[in-house]
Amino acid sequence: MEKGNVEEALKEEETVKSGVNGLDDLFGGGFDPGSVILLSGPPGSGKSVMSAQFIYNGAVKYGEAGLYVNFSESRGDFMRNMARFRMDFNRLEEEGLFRFIDAYNVFNRRSLDLILSHVLDELASLRVRRMVLDSVNSVAAMMDKDELRGFIAATILGICKVNKVTCILISNQLKEVADVKLAELAFMCDTVINLEAKLIGDTVERFLIINKARGKNPIASRAEYIITDRGVEVFAPIVRLPAERGRLDGYVGIGHPEFDEKVLMGGVRRGTVTLISGPGGTGKRFLLVEFAASSVLRGEKTLYATFRDLRRVEESFINRGYDVKELEKRGMRFVEFSPFRVTPGIILLTLKETLDDFQPSMAAVEEVASLKWLPREDYYRLINKMAALFKDYGVTVMMSSESNVDVRETDEFRAADNVISVWSEREGNEAVRKVCVVKMEGRTHYEKVRKLTYEGGVRVAELYEY
Fold this sequence. Notes:
Elements: H1 3-13, H2 23-27, E1 36-41, H3 47-62, E2 66-70, H4 75-83, H5 89-94, E3 98-102, H6 109-126, E4 130-134, H7 136-140, H8 145-163, E5 166-172, H9 185-188, E6 191-200, E7 203-213, E8 222-228, E9 231-234, H10 245-248, E10 251-252, H11 257-263, E11 268-269, E12 273-278, H12 284-297, E13 302-306, H13 310-319, H14 324-330, E14 332-336, H15 344-358, E15 362-366, H16 376-392, E16 396-402, H17 411-415, E17 418-427, E18 430-439, E19 449-453, E20 459-464
Parallel strand pairs: 1-5, 1-6, 2-3, 2-4, 4-5, 12-16, 12-17, 13-14, 13-15, 15-16
Antiparallel strand pairs: 6-7, 7-8, 8-9, 10-11, 17-18, 18-19, 19-20
Protein backbone atom coordinates (compact mmCIF):
# COMPACT_ATOMS: atom_id res chain seq x y z
CA MET A 1 0.00 0.00 0.00
CA GLU A 2 1.31 3.45 -0.95
CA LYS A 3 2.21 5.96 1.75
CA GLY A 4 -0.76 8.23 1.05
CA ASN A 5 -3.16 5.28 1.25
CA VAL A 6 -1.60 4.09 4.49
CA GLU A 7 -1.97 7.51 6.07
CA GLU A 8 -5.58 7.71 4.92
CA ALA A 9 -6.33 4.23 6.28
CA LEU A 10 -4.76 5.07 9.63
CA LYS A 11 -6.71 8.30 9.80
CA GLU A 12 -9.96 6.44 9.08
CA GLU A 13 -9.15 3.78 11.68
CA GLU A 14 -8.41 6.37 14.34
CA THR A 15 -11.64 8.27 13.83
CA VAL A 16 -14.81 7.69 15.85
CA LYS A 17 -17.88 8.55 13.83
CA SER A 18 -20.39 10.71 15.69
CA GLY A 19 -23.46 9.04 14.20
CA VAL A 20 -24.99 12.50 13.70
CA ASN A 21 -25.67 13.43 10.09
CA GLY A 22 -23.34 16.29 9.07
CA LEU A 23 -21.37 16.52 12.32
CA ASP A 24 -18.46 14.41 11.13
CA ASP A 25 -18.11 16.67 8.09
CA LEU A 26 -17.47 19.59 10.44
CA PHE A 27 -14.71 17.71 12.25
CA GLY A 28 -13.08 16.27 9.17
CA GLY A 29 -14.22 12.71 9.85
CA GLY A 30 -15.21 12.41 13.50
CA PHE A 31 -13.78 12.35 17.03
CA ASP A 32 -10.51 10.90 18.26
CA PRO A 33 -10.81 7.58 20.16
CA GLY A 34 -10.74 8.15 23.90
CA SER A 35 -11.61 11.81 23.60
CA VAL A 36 -14.03 13.52 25.96
CA ILE A 37 -16.62 15.86 24.45
CA LEU A 38 -18.48 18.46 26.48
CA LEU A 39 -21.90 19.02 24.91
CA SER A 40 -23.68 21.97 26.46
CA GLY A 41 -26.89 23.85 25.79
CA PRO A 42 -30.24 24.88 27.24
CA PRO A 43 -33.08 22.42 27.88
CA GLY A 44 -34.78 21.33 24.66
CA SER A 45 -31.77 22.02 22.45
CA GLY A 46 -31.32 18.37 21.47
CA LYS A 47 -28.35 17.37 23.63
CA SER A 48 -29.83 14.06 24.74
CA VAL A 49 -31.06 13.20 21.25
CA MET A 50 -27.65 13.94 19.72
CA SER A 51 -25.91 11.90 22.42
CA ALA A 52 -28.34 9.02 21.94
CA GLN A 53 -27.56 9.06 18.21
CA PHE A 54 -23.87 8.84 19.09
CA ILE A 55 -24.54 5.65 21.06
CA TYR A 56 -27.22 4.15 18.82
CA ASN A 57 -25.54 4.64 15.44
CA GLY A 58 -22.23 3.62 16.93
CA ALA A 59 -23.78 0.25 17.65
CA VAL A 60 -25.95 -0.13 14.56
CA LYS A 61 -23.51 1.19 11.95
CA TYR A 62 -20.11 0.43 13.47
CA GLY A 63 -20.74 -2.43 15.91
CA GLU A 64 -19.38 -0.47 18.89
CA ALA A 65 -20.97 -1.12 22.28
CA GLY A 66 -22.29 1.92 24.14
CA LEU A 67 -23.16 2.90 27.70
CA TYR A 68 -25.63 5.65 28.64
CA VAL A 69 -25.53 6.86 32.26
CA ASN A 70 -28.61 8.98 32.84
CA PHE A 71 -29.24 11.19 35.87
CA SER A 72 -31.92 13.19 34.02
CA GLU A 73 -34.62 10.67 33.13
CA SER A 74 -35.64 7.11 33.96
CA ARG A 75 -34.95 4.12 31.76
CA GLY A 76 -38.59 3.90 30.64
CA ASP A 77 -38.78 7.57 29.71
CA PHE A 78 -35.48 7.38 27.82
CA MET A 79 -36.49 4.31 25.80
CA ARG A 80 -39.88 5.80 24.97
CA ASN A 81 -38.51 9.21 24.01
CA MET A 82 -35.78 7.84 21.78
CA ALA A 83 -38.19 5.47 20.04
CA ARG A 84 -39.84 8.63 18.67
CA PHE A 85 -36.60 9.26 16.80
CA ARG A 86 -36.52 5.73 15.35
CA MET A 87 -33.94 4.47 17.87
CA ASP A 88 -34.78 1.01 19.28
CA PHE A 89 -32.45 0.70 22.26
CA ASN A 90 -34.31 -2.36 23.56
CA ARG A 91 -33.10 -4.31 20.53
CA LEU A 92 -29.53 -3.14 21.10
CA GLU A 93 -29.71 -4.33 24.71
CA GLU A 94 -30.83 -7.76 23.56
CA GLU A 95 -27.92 -7.87 21.11
CA GLY A 96 -25.43 -6.98 23.85
CA LEU A 97 -24.44 -3.67 22.30
CA PHE A 98 -26.01 -1.30 24.82
CA ARG A 99 -26.43 -0.75 28.53
CA PHE A 100 -28.52 1.91 30.27
CA ILE A 101 -27.63 2.85 33.82
CA ASP A 102 -30.60 4.48 35.51
CA ALA A 103 -29.29 7.09 37.94
CA TYR A 104 -32.46 9.16 37.96
CA ASN A 105 -32.99 8.75 41.72
CA VAL A 106 -29.37 9.27 42.75
CA PHE A 107 -29.12 12.30 45.05
CA ASN A 108 -26.17 11.67 47.38
CA ARG A 109 -22.49 10.78 47.20
CA ARG A 110 -22.90 7.24 48.51
CA SER A 111 -25.41 6.38 45.78
CA LEU A 112 -23.16 8.09 43.24
CA ASP A 113 -20.22 5.90 44.23
CA LEU A 114 -22.37 2.81 43.66
CA ILE A 115 -23.31 4.09 40.21
CA LEU A 116 -19.67 4.70 39.35
CA SER A 117 -18.78 1.18 40.43
CA HIS A 118 -21.57 -0.09 38.17
CA VAL A 119 -20.15 1.99 35.30
CA LEU A 120 -16.71 0.40 35.73
CA ASP A 121 -18.24 -3.08 35.71
CA GLU A 122 -20.17 -2.39 32.50
CA LEU A 123 -17.16 -0.87 30.77
CA ALA A 124 -15.23 -4.07 31.40
CA SER A 125 -17.96 -6.64 30.72
CA LEU A 126 -19.42 -5.02 27.60
CA ARG A 127 -16.11 -3.76 26.16
CA VAL A 128 -17.72 -0.34 25.78
CA ARG A 129 -16.29 2.04 23.18
CA ARG A 130 -18.81 4.86 23.60
CA MET A 131 -20.24 6.43 26.73
CA VAL A 132 -22.60 9.29 27.61
CA LEU A 133 -23.00 10.95 31.02
CA ASP A 134 -26.30 12.85 31.16
CA SER A 135 -25.79 15.21 32.86
CA VAL A 136 -22.60 16.37 34.53
CA ASN A 137 -24.65 19.02 36.38
CA SER A 138 -26.24 16.26 38.45
CA VAL A 139 -22.84 14.90 39.42
CA ALA A 140 -21.59 18.39 40.25
CA ALA A 141 -24.49 18.91 42.64
CA MET A 142 -23.20 16.03 44.79
CA MET A 143 -19.56 17.18 44.96
CA ASP A 144 -17.60 20.23 45.90
CA LYS A 145 -15.38 21.94 43.35
CA ASP A 146 -12.20 20.00 44.17
CA GLU A 147 -13.98 16.65 44.26
CA LEU A 148 -15.55 17.33 40.89
CA ARG A 149 -12.20 18.25 39.35
CA GLY A 150 -10.69 15.01 40.67
CA PHE A 151 -13.67 12.98 39.49
CA ILE A 152 -13.47 14.33 35.94
CA ALA A 153 -9.67 14.09 35.74
CA ALA A 154 -9.14 10.71 37.38
CA THR A 155 -12.37 8.84 36.73
CA ILE A 156 -13.81 10.10 33.45
CA LEU A 157 -10.69 11.27 31.58
CA GLY A 158 -8.54 8.51 33.06
CA ILE A 159 -10.92 5.70 32.14
CA CYS A 160 -11.60 7.05 28.67
CA LYS A 161 -7.97 7.68 27.71
CA VAL A 162 -6.70 4.31 28.95
CA ASN A 163 -9.56 2.26 27.50
CA LYS A 164 -10.08 4.31 24.31
CA VAL A 165 -13.67 5.02 25.30
CA THR A 166 -15.05 8.10 23.58
CA CYS A 167 -17.31 9.96 25.98
CA ILE A 168 -19.90 12.75 25.76
CA LEU A 169 -20.54 14.77 28.90
CA ILE A 170 -23.84 16.63 28.74
CA SER A 171 -24.01 19.99 30.49
CA ASN A 172 -27.31 21.80 30.96
CA GLN A 173 -27.11 25.56 30.60
CA LEU A 174 -29.74 27.83 32.07
CA LYS A 175 -30.00 31.48 31.06
CA GLU A 176 -28.19 33.79 33.45
CA VAL A 177 -27.30 30.89 35.74
CA ALA A 178 -23.63 29.97 35.88
CA ASP A 179 -22.37 26.81 37.58
CA VAL A 180 -19.03 27.80 39.12
CA LYS A 181 -18.13 24.15 39.67
CA LEU A 182 -18.28 23.47 35.93
CA ALA A 183 -16.16 26.48 34.95
CA GLU A 184 -13.00 24.38 34.56
CA LEU A 185 -14.68 21.53 32.71
CA ALA A 186 -14.22 23.08 29.26
CA PHE A 187 -10.46 23.29 29.81
CA MET A 188 -10.26 19.61 30.77
CA CYS A 189 -12.26 18.23 27.84
CA ASP A 190 -10.87 17.62 24.35
CA THR A 191 -13.86 19.04 22.50
CA VAL A 192 -16.44 21.60 23.54
CA ILE A 193 -19.69 21.93 21.58
CA ASN A 194 -22.36 24.43 22.52
CA LEU A 195 -25.94 24.32 21.22
CA GLU A 196 -27.86 27.58 20.84
CA ALA A 197 -31.33 28.48 19.68
CA LYS A 198 -33.29 31.59 18.79
CA LEU A 199 -36.86 32.20 17.69
CA ILE A 200 -37.35 33.57 14.18
CA GLY A 201 -40.93 33.97 13.05
CA ASP A 202 -42.84 30.87 14.10
CA THR A 203 -39.83 28.55 14.07
CA VAL A 204 -36.74 27.93 16.14
CA GLU A 205 -33.36 28.41 14.49
CA ARG A 206 -30.67 26.22 16.08
CA PHE A 207 -26.91 26.60 15.91
CA LEU A 208 -24.04 24.32 16.87
CA ILE A 209 -20.90 26.16 18.01
CA ILE A 210 -17.52 24.42 18.23
CA ASN A 211 -15.68 26.29 20.97
CA LYS A 212 -12.80 23.83 21.20
CA ALA A 213 -11.53 20.89 19.15
CA ARG A 214 -8.15 19.68 20.38
CA GLY A 215 -6.12 18.13 17.56
CA LYS A 216 -8.81 18.92 14.99
CA ASN A 217 -9.28 21.62 12.39
CA PRO A 218 -13.05 22.02 11.91
CA ILE A 219 -14.09 23.35 8.51
CA ALA A 220 -16.50 25.70 10.31
CA SER A 221 -16.95 26.74 13.93
CA ARG A 222 -20.67 27.46 13.57
CA ALA A 223 -23.34 25.45 11.76
CA GLU A 224 -27.10 25.31 11.82
CA TYR A 225 -28.83 22.10 12.84
CA ILE A 226 -32.39 20.86 12.93
CA ILE A 227 -34.25 18.22 14.92
CA THR A 228 -36.43 15.87 12.88
CA ASP A 229 -38.04 12.48 13.49
CA ARG A 230 -34.65 11.06 12.52
CA GLY A 231 -32.85 13.00 15.24
CA VAL A 232 -30.38 15.85 14.95
CA GLU A 233 -29.05 16.79 11.50
CA VAL A 234 -26.26 19.32 11.03
CA PHE A 235 -25.73 21.39 7.91
CA ALA A 236 -21.98 21.48 7.29
CA PRO A 237 -20.38 23.43 4.45
CA ILE A 238 -19.65 21.09 1.55
CA VAL A 239 -16.01 20.29 0.91
CA ARG A 240 -15.81 18.12 -2.17
CA LEU A 241 -13.97 17.70 -5.43
CA PRO A 242 -15.22 19.85 -8.34
CA ALA A 243 -18.06 18.35 -10.33
CA GLU A 244 -17.19 16.25 -13.34
CA ARG A 245 -15.71 18.50 -16.00
CA GLY A 246 -18.06 17.29 -18.73
CA ARG A 247 -21.04 18.35 -16.66
CA LEU A 248 -19.75 21.93 -16.45
CA ASP A 249 -18.62 22.40 -20.04
CA GLY A 250 -20.64 24.62 -22.33
CA TYR A 251 -23.62 26.93 -22.03
CA VAL A 252 -27.33 26.48 -21.49
CA GLY A 253 -30.44 28.64 -22.00
CA ILE A 254 -34.15 28.45 -21.32
CA GLY A 255 -34.88 26.56 -24.53
CA HIS A 256 -36.23 29.47 -26.61
CA PRO A 257 -33.80 30.59 -29.33
CA GLU A 258 -34.75 34.28 -29.35
CA PHE A 259 -34.25 34.66 -25.62
CA ASP A 260 -31.16 32.46 -25.49
CA GLU A 261 -29.39 34.21 -28.37
CA LYS A 262 -30.48 37.82 -27.94
CA VAL A 263 -30.61 38.05 -24.13
CA LEU A 264 -28.24 35.33 -22.91
CA MET A 265 -25.81 35.60 -25.85
CA GLY A 266 -25.98 31.85 -26.44
CA GLY A 267 -26.64 30.82 -22.86
CA VAL A 268 -25.23 31.00 -19.35
CA ARG A 269 -22.20 29.00 -18.34
CA ARG A 270 -23.01 25.62 -16.82
CA GLY A 271 -22.46 25.38 -13.09
CA THR A 272 -23.39 29.02 -12.49
CA VAL A 273 -26.28 30.68 -10.66
CA THR A 274 -28.52 33.01 -12.66
CA LEU A 275 -30.88 35.46 -11.00
CA ILE A 276 -34.08 36.64 -12.70
CA SER A 277 -35.19 39.74 -10.79
CA GLY A 278 -38.17 42.03 -11.21
CA PRO A 279 -41.58 43.13 -9.90
CA GLY A 280 -44.56 40.81 -9.72
CA GLY A 281 -46.40 40.19 -12.98
CA THR A 282 -43.34 40.39 -15.22
CA GLY A 283 -43.26 36.68 -16.09
CA LYS A 284 -40.35 35.44 -13.97
CA ARG A 285 -42.14 32.14 -13.36
CA PHE A 286 -42.71 31.66 -17.11
CA LEU A 287 -38.97 31.88 -17.69
CA LEU A 288 -38.27 29.37 -14.89
CA VAL A 289 -40.93 27.00 -16.25
CA GLU A 290 -39.43 27.10 -19.73
CA PHE A 291 -35.91 26.61 -18.37
CA ALA A 292 -36.97 23.63 -16.24
CA ALA A 293 -39.14 21.97 -18.88
CA SER A 294 -36.60 22.34 -21.69
CA SER A 295 -33.89 20.90 -19.42
CA VAL A 296 -35.99 17.81 -18.70
CA LEU A 297 -36.95 17.36 -22.35
CA ARG A 298 -33.32 17.28 -23.42
CA GLY A 299 -32.65 14.52 -20.86
CA GLU A 300 -31.34 16.39 -17.81
CA LYS A 301 -32.63 15.77 -14.30
CA THR A 302 -34.10 19.01 -13.02
CA LEU A 303 -35.11 20.16 -9.55
CA TYR A 304 -37.86 22.78 -9.22
CA ALA A 305 -37.84 24.29 -5.71
CA THR A 306 -40.51 26.85 -4.90
CA PHE A 307 -41.38 29.12 -2.00
CA ARG A 308 -44.84 29.65 -3.49
CA ASP A 309 -47.92 27.41 -3.72
CA LEU A 310 -46.86 24.28 -5.64
CA ARG A 311 -50.35 23.91 -7.14
CA ARG A 312 -50.01 27.31 -8.80
CA VAL A 313 -46.59 26.30 -10.12
CA GLU A 314 -48.01 23.11 -11.64
CA GLU A 315 -50.83 25.14 -13.21
CA SER A 316 -48.19 27.34 -14.85
CA PHE A 317 -46.59 24.28 -16.45
CA ILE A 318 -49.98 23.10 -17.67
CA ASN A 319 -50.85 26.54 -19.04
CA ARG A 320 -47.59 26.51 -20.99
CA GLY A 321 -48.64 23.20 -22.57
CA TYR A 322 -46.61 20.78 -20.44
CA ASP A 323 -47.80 17.52 -18.88
CA VAL A 324 -46.52 17.69 -15.30
CA LYS A 325 -46.76 13.93 -14.69
CA GLU A 326 -44.84 13.24 -17.89
CA LEU A 327 -42.13 15.73 -16.88
CA GLU A 328 -41.82 14.00 -13.51
CA LYS A 329 -41.45 10.64 -15.23
CA ARG A 330 -38.70 12.03 -17.45
CA GLY A 331 -36.68 13.62 -14.65
CA MET A 332 -38.41 16.53 -12.90
CA ARG A 333 -38.69 16.75 -9.13
CA PHE A 334 -40.62 19.40 -7.22
CA VAL A 335 -39.80 20.60 -3.70
CA GLU A 336 -42.13 23.02 -1.93
CA PHE A 337 -41.15 25.20 1.04
CA SER A 338 -43.57 27.17 3.19
CA PRO A 339 -41.50 30.35 3.63
CA PHE A 340 -42.83 31.23 7.10
CA ARG A 341 -42.43 27.73 8.56
CA VAL A 342 -38.83 27.02 7.69
CA THR A 343 -35.43 28.08 8.95
CA PRO A 344 -32.32 28.44 6.80
CA GLY A 345 -31.11 25.11 8.18
CA ILE A 346 -34.26 23.27 7.12
CA ILE A 347 -33.97 24.70 3.61
CA LEU A 348 -30.28 23.88 3.23
CA LEU A 349 -30.56 20.36 4.65
CA THR A 350 -33.62 19.60 2.50
CA LEU A 351 -31.84 20.81 -0.62
CA LYS A 352 -28.68 18.87 0.25
CA GLU A 353 -30.67 15.70 0.88
CA THR A 354 -32.47 16.16 -2.46
CA LEU A 355 -29.22 16.80 -4.32
CA ASP A 356 -27.67 13.66 -2.81
CA ASP A 357 -30.70 11.52 -3.62
CA PHE A 358 -31.89 12.96 -6.95
CA GLN A 359 -28.55 14.20 -8.37
CA PRO A 360 -29.95 16.82 -10.78
CA SER A 361 -27.81 18.79 -13.21
CA MET A 362 -30.32 21.68 -13.40
CA ALA A 363 -32.38 23.53 -10.80
CA ALA A 364 -34.99 26.27 -10.81
CA VAL A 365 -35.57 28.10 -7.53
CA GLU A 366 -38.67 30.28 -7.40
CA GLU A 367 -39.05 33.45 -5.34
CA VAL A 368 -36.26 33.39 -2.77
CA ALA A 369 -37.41 36.91 -1.83
CA SER A 370 -40.31 35.24 0.01
CA LEU A 371 -37.75 34.68 2.77
CA LYS A 372 -37.01 38.37 3.26
CA TRP A 373 -38.92 38.29 6.54
CA LEU A 374 -35.69 36.80 7.92
CA PRO A 375 -33.20 39.22 9.48
CA ARG A 376 -31.16 40.63 6.60
CA GLU A 377 -27.90 39.03 7.76
CA ASP A 378 -29.58 35.60 7.95
CA TYR A 379 -31.22 36.09 4.55
CA TYR A 380 -27.96 37.13 2.88
CA ARG A 381 -26.10 34.21 4.46
CA LEU A 382 -28.82 31.79 3.33
CA ILE A 383 -28.88 32.75 -0.35
CA ASN A 384 -25.09 32.65 -0.49
CA LYS A 385 -25.05 29.21 1.11
CA MET A 386 -27.73 28.03 -1.32
CA ALA A 387 -25.68 29.27 -4.26
CA ALA A 388 -22.53 27.62 -2.90
CA LEU A 389 -24.39 24.35 -2.26
CA PHE A 390 -25.64 24.10 -5.84
CA LYS A 391 -22.19 24.96 -7.20
CA ASP A 392 -20.55 22.29 -5.05
CA TYR A 393 -22.83 19.75 -6.72
CA GLY A 394 -22.19 21.15 -10.20
CA VAL A 395 -25.82 22.19 -10.66
CA THR A 396 -26.78 24.98 -13.07
CA VAL A 397 -29.35 27.19 -11.36
CA MET A 398 -31.89 29.80 -12.37
CA MET A 399 -33.64 31.49 -9.47
CA SER A 400 -36.25 34.22 -9.37
CA SER A 401 -36.71 37.01 -6.88
CA GLU A 402 -39.43 39.64 -6.72
CA SER A 403 -38.00 43.12 -6.38
CA ASN A 404 -39.21 46.66 -6.98
CA VAL A 405 -35.78 48.29 -6.69
CA ASP A 406 -32.71 48.36 -8.91
CA VAL A 407 -31.42 44.79 -8.92
CA ARG A 408 -27.88 46.04 -8.27
CA GLU A 409 -29.00 47.14 -4.82
CA THR A 410 -30.27 43.69 -3.78
CA ASP A 411 -28.57 40.97 -1.75
CA GLU A 412 -29.41 38.44 -4.46
CA PHE A 413 -27.35 40.40 -7.01
CA ARG A 414 -24.15 39.71 -5.07
CA ALA A 415 -24.94 36.02 -4.67
CA ALA A 416 -25.57 35.35 -8.38
CA ASP A 417 -23.09 34.92 -11.24
CA ASN A 418 -25.51 36.12 -13.90
CA VAL A 419 -28.36 38.58 -13.46
CA ILE A 420 -31.36 39.21 -15.71
CA SER A 421 -33.65 42.14 -14.92
CA VAL A 422 -37.29 42.10 -16.09
CA TRP A 423 -39.81 44.89 -15.59
CA SER A 424 -42.76 46.56 -17.26
CA GLU A 425 -43.38 50.15 -18.38
CA ARG A 426 -46.56 51.89 -19.45
CA GLU A 427 -46.42 52.97 -23.11
CA GLY A 428 -49.71 54.57 -24.07
CA ASN A 429 -52.43 52.12 -23.13
CA GLU A 430 -50.09 49.15 -23.10
CA ALA A 431 -47.89 47.71 -20.34
CA VAL A 432 -44.70 46.63 -22.10
CA ARG A 433 -42.46 44.02 -20.49
CA LYS A 434 -38.75 44.62 -20.89
CA VAL A 435 -35.63 42.57 -20.23
CA CYS A 436 -31.94 43.33 -19.84
CA VAL A 437 -28.82 41.41 -18.80
CA VAL A 438 -27.15 43.27 -15.95
CA LYS A 439 -24.38 40.81 -15.09
CA MET A 440 -22.77 37.84 -16.87
CA GLU A 441 -19.92 35.82 -15.39
CA GLY A 442 -16.72 35.83 -17.41
CA ARG A 443 -18.29 37.40 -20.51
CA THR A 444 -18.58 40.87 -21.94
CA HIS A 445 -22.21 41.87 -22.19
CA TYR A 446 -24.18 44.90 -23.25
CA GLU A 447 -27.02 46.19 -21.11
CA LYS A 448 -29.36 46.40 -24.05
CA VAL A 449 -33.06 46.66 -23.28
CA ARG A 450 -35.42 44.51 -25.33
CA LYS A 451 -39.15 43.94 -25.41
CA LEU A 452 -40.28 40.64 -23.87
CA THR A 453 -43.53 38.83 -24.67
CA TYR A 454 -44.88 35.39 -23.82
CA GLU A 455 -47.43 34.86 -26.60
CA GLY A 456 -46.45 31.91 -28.78
CA GLY A 457 -43.41 31.13 -26.66
CA VAL A 458 -40.87 33.52 -25.25
CA ARG A 459 -40.31 36.28 -27.78
CA VAL A 460 -37.74 39.07 -27.74
CA ALA A 461 -37.88 42.21 -29.86
CA GLU A 462 -35.38 45.04 -30.29
CA LEU A 463 -36.08 48.41 -28.68
CA TYR A 464 -33.14 50.70 -28.06
CA GLU A 465 -29.73 50.85 -26.45
CA TYR A 466 -29.80 51.21 -22.68
